[in-house]
Write a structure and sequence with these properties.
single chain; ABC transporter transmembrane region fold; Rossmann fold; alpha/beta; six-stranded mixed sheet
């Protein structure tokens, strides 16, 4: 519940909206009770063939008689106690006197009579002051009274409906504003997570929390400011009305409340657990759907539609089972609360009917009423209880819906509260401009340990104690990088080659600090990366990946991405240097204003890659990283890209991960990796003599040795 309350607090900045929402709920509750109150004059006045004036006259006479009776009783009691009580009400007898107890009892009775007399005098005074207005404005016939009452009920209902509309709209607005703030907070936190977090947990989990779970929280906030304020106020108004008739009788009808409270607590635990499991199953469904449609070409060419349908059916069935379990508990709430409501109603009917029929004012010697209960009074009492039953029933439904919001809030705040496993330095050292060297010293890296570290960061936000182990399921960790030591001077171009899975891309990911080594140190200009502000580090790095990454925006916006201070002429110059200008102006309909579509779908692979190179050229980084940048494009596009790189890599440090020989002439040195180790470092001529693997790249460029580790570790 604490996390859901944190989501509620995000709306506190909209104070005026909250105040108006609460005021509307108060007015709504008032008119809810006012409409019920109309039952009394109908039954007590009109249905008895009387007018309001007749009833008023009778009430004045009854109050006058009651006041006279109080005065007579008080005078008689004062005579009995004369000489035994002082003027201030103190008893003049010693406590040892046998009459002391009787005098004490008489003094209490006298005090009650005096209070009753004062109440009767105030009531009579109010009736007499109102009588001229009643005589002047009240209907003169019983049926006219009914007509006026019904008109007042309609007017009250219209006013109540207006406040209901305003209150419902504002509570929904607060829910949407709250989720707007929460999504801003969620996104700003998630975008700074380390890259490996999404590899470990998948994008589907984050997407589900961002969309499905935050939507559940929005519904919860709407309920909180809507029904959770409105329905209790309506309930309170009805209970106050019933208490004004007989608070003792009202208390007697609420004997089942402890049982209701126990039931609510029990249901809360069950619903919260099942809803959380259902949300997790929804994540699995998102993951299944996303994987299927991302891989649709492979699925079709291998004719595996039937297999994917079966896999989806299993996931869908699990989701159904979790949903049905949640529905089971939700379905229990209504009948259980209805049973409790009927039990309460039956109890009050039995006791109140006995009071009306017998004319008594007490039950089992316990005072329930000051005066015998009239038919109009008991019907009004029932009306208030029935009026209270509707918001009480709604509150039971609200409770189950809030449990879903509470579970969703826990999942969302797991991400918001999660510790970043790549924290910023507490006292960062300023890297103004890289100019000397990049050094890796005895670097080891294991994805097993990295995944465990990421999982523990998430578990700590759940406040769960976890036992540190060296790897999942007790297995020894598999190291992708082993004792890597390498120095790269500024201005040098280094190519890294090796079989698939040997750790080339993992090594490259250490430079922009997408991940930290399991052990060892990576430094730039003799400053460890962990001591450099991430913004300063990445501001000096350009990255071109194997799969070109373009946004659903124009060509110009994609080239300018991250360097918005540059002019359009500079964008065009960068595109020319990347050999992209010609196809942009000749082949694209709107030139640089052409939208490339989702993931650059309107461009070929070679065109996309040249735009990413133009983006890197425009940034003019001190460090350029190329991760298999030409591995998935045609030979002509590769030739143009190499031409673009030749004129660009000379004034910066460039690290090229590749397995294609065409990129190797760009390098000053080549690093050959095998099984996570650096086996050879040297020039092209040296490696042609020393490394069988390197020599094989040129003699059999299409035959790359397989590697025993997972390609995901490359």
């Amino acid at each position: 519940m604490n996390n859901f309350w944190r989501a509620i607090r995000l709306t506190f900045k909209y104070r005026l909206t909250i105040v108006i929402t609460v005021l509307c709920a108060l007015f709504l509750a008032f008119f809810w009770g006012a409409n019920i109150t109309a039952v009394f004059p109908l039954v007590q006045i009109s249905f008895n063939g009387e007018t309001v004036g007749d009833y008023w006259t009778k009430e004045i006479a009854a109050k006058t008689d009651a006041l006279a009776e109080y005065k007579i009783k008080k005078a008689a009691l004062q005579d009995e106690l004369k000489g035994l009580l002082a003027e201030d009400g103190k008893i003049l007898l010693p406590k040892t006197d046998q009459r002391y107890a009787e005098v004490q009892k008489g003094r209490l009775a006298l005090g009650k009579l005096q209070r009753d007399e004062q109440t009767a005098e105030k009531g009579l005074d109010g009736l007499r002051r109102a009588q001229p207005y009643v005589d002047r404005f009240a209907p003169k016939t019983p049926y006219g009274t009914v007509v006026v009452l019904m008109l007042l009920v309609i007017a009250g209902t219209v006013i109540k409906s207006i406040f209901t509309y305003i209150h419902t709209y504002l509570s929904t607005r607060l829910g949407m504003l709250g989720i707007y703030e929460l999504r801003e907070l969620f996104f700003s936190k998630a975008i700074h997570f380390e890259v490996d977090y999404y590899s470990t947990h998948g994008v589907a989990d984050t997407m589900s929390r961002f969309t499905n779970d935050t939507g559940g929280i929005a519904n919860g906030i709407t309920i909180f400011y809507g029904k959770l304020i409105r329905e209790p106020l309506k309930l309170i108004v009805c209970l106050i009305g019933a208490a004004l008739i007989s608070w003792q009788l009202l208390l007697l009808t609420l004997v089942f409340i402890p049982a209701v409270g126990w039931m609510i607590v029990w249901m809360a635990k069950k619903i919260k657990k099942t809803v959380r499991n259902a949300l997790q199953e929804m994540v699995n469904m998102y993951a299944r759907i996303g994987e299927t449609f991302r891989s649709i070409r492979i699925i079709k060419v291998f004719n595996r539609e039937r297999l994917e349908r079966a896999k989806f059916r299993r996931t869908n069935r699990k989701n159904l089972q979790k949903g049905l379990k949640t529905a089971k508990y939700n379905a229990l709430i209504s009948p259980m609360t209805e049973i409790m409501g009927i039990a309460i109603l039956v109890t009050v009917i039995l006791f109140s009917a006995w009071l009306v029929i017998t004319g008594e004012t007490s039950i089992w010697g316990i005072p329930m009423l000051r005066h015998p209960l009239s038919l109009g009074g008991i019907i009004l009492f029932f009306g208030f209880l029935i009026g209270a039953s509707d918001p009480a029933r709604r509150l039971s439904d609200i409770f189950s819906q809030l449990q879903g919001a509470v579970s969703a809030a826990d999942r969302v705040y797991e991400i918001i509260d999660r510790e970043n496993t790549l924290p910023e330095a507490v006292s960062p050292k300023r890297l103004r401009r890289f100019e000397r060297r990049i050094v890796l010293e005895h670097v080891d890296f294991s994805y097993d340990i990295e995944r465990q570290r990421i999982s523990h960061a998430l578990e700590r936000t759940q406040k769960e104690k976890t036992k540190e182990t060296s790897a999942a399921n007790g297995r020894a960790p598999n190291f992708v990088l082993r004792d890597i030591s390498l120095e790269i001077p500024f201005g040098e171009t280094v190519a890294i080659v090796g079989s698939s899975g040997c750790g080339k891309s993992t090594l490259l990911s250490l430079i922009p600090r997408f991940t930290d080594p399991t052990s060892g140190v990576v430094s730039i200009d003799d400053i460890p990366l962990t001591d450099i502000r991430l913004f300063d580090l990445r501001q000096q790095i350009g990255l071109i990946t194997q799969n070109p990454i373009l946004f659903n925006a124009t060509v110009e916006e994609n080239i300018r991405y991250g360097t918005y201070g540059r002019s359009f002429d500079e964008v065009v110059e960068a595109a020319k240097r990347a050999y992209a200008h010609d196809f942009i102006v000749n082949d694209l309909e709107d030139g640089y204003r052409t939208n490339v579509g989702p993931d650059g779908a309107r461009l070929s692979g070679g065109q996309m890659q040249r735009i990413t190179i133009a983006r890197a050229i425009l940034k003019d980084p001190r460090i350029l990283l190329l991760d298999e940048a030409t591995s998935q494009i045609d030979m002509e596009s590769e030739r143009l890209i190499h031409e673009a790189l030749k004129g660009f890599i000379g004034r910066r440090t460039t690290i090229i991960v590749t397995h294609r020989p065409g990129a190797l002439p760009l390098a000053d040195r080549v690093v050959v990796m095998e099984d996570g180790w650096i086996r050879h470092v040297g020039t092209h001529e040296e490696l042609m003599k020393e490394s069988d693997f390197y020599r094989n790249i040129f003699t059999n460029p299409m035959e790359q040795p397989a590697h025993k580790t997972s390609p995901a570790q490359n």
